[in-house]
Amino acid sequence: MFPFSKKKPLLDPADQERVVASIRNAESRTTGELRVFVETHCSYVDAMDRAWEVFHNLNMAATERRNAVLVYLATVDKQFALVGDEEIYKKAGGPLFWEKAAESLKEYLKNGKMAEGLVSCVDKLGDAMATHFPYDPTITKNELPDEIVFGK
């Protein structure tokens, strides 16, 4: 008989809850939408290409104000990317803002602190989203689910 083992989740349930809570907190201050996508392997050489594919597959380009942000992470390949729709990308400060946010996440990942890195990154992105797309009580819809999406 062969022992069967359960595949270890990419993030344990407590860490998943922390990341989802940070997404909900970020979105409570903005009209923007934020998603986190985690998988083991990146199917492209450049994680940015995969992140944009995921962004479009999750219909993130269809948000009303074009202010959705995706945090993409491939754990085994040790790749990640941050992508923002056209309006939030420009208003947050262009390449410099995104490079700084990426550097911060990279430091956490290098130290084996994936959940802490995701929470910190979501918080930083949420701050930028709240600054440029503040909460509007007349807009009460959550356009995209808040849970983490797990790929292959």
**Between the first and last Cα atoms, what is the distance in angstroms?**
27 Å
How would you write the strand order of the largest sheet?
3-2-1-4
Query: Helix content range of the residues, please?
Result: 40-55%
Strands, total number? 4
Q: Say what the CATH topology is.
A: Diaminopimelate Epimerase, Chain A, domain 1
Summarize the structure.
This protein has helices spanning 13-27, 47-57, 86-91, 94-110, 114-132; strands at residues 33-39, 68-74, 79-84, 149-150. The chain has 152 residues and is α/β, with parallel strands linked by helices.
Please describe what this structure looks like.
With 152 residues, this protein is of the alpha/beta class. It has a single domain, classed as Diaminopimelate Epimerase, Chain A, domain 1, CATH 3.10.310.50. Strands 3-2-1-4 form a four-stranded mixed β-sheet, sandwiched between helices. The protein is globular and about 45 Å long. The two termini are 27 Å apart.
Map the helices and strands.
Layout: H1 13-27, E1 33-39, H2 47-57, E2 68-74, E3 79-84, H3 86-91, H4 94-110, H5 114-132, E4 149-150
Parallel strand pairs: 1-2, 1-4
Antiparallel strand pairs: 2-3
Features:
single chain, 152 residues, alpha/beta, Diaminopimelate Epimerase, Chain A, domain 1, 4 strands, globular
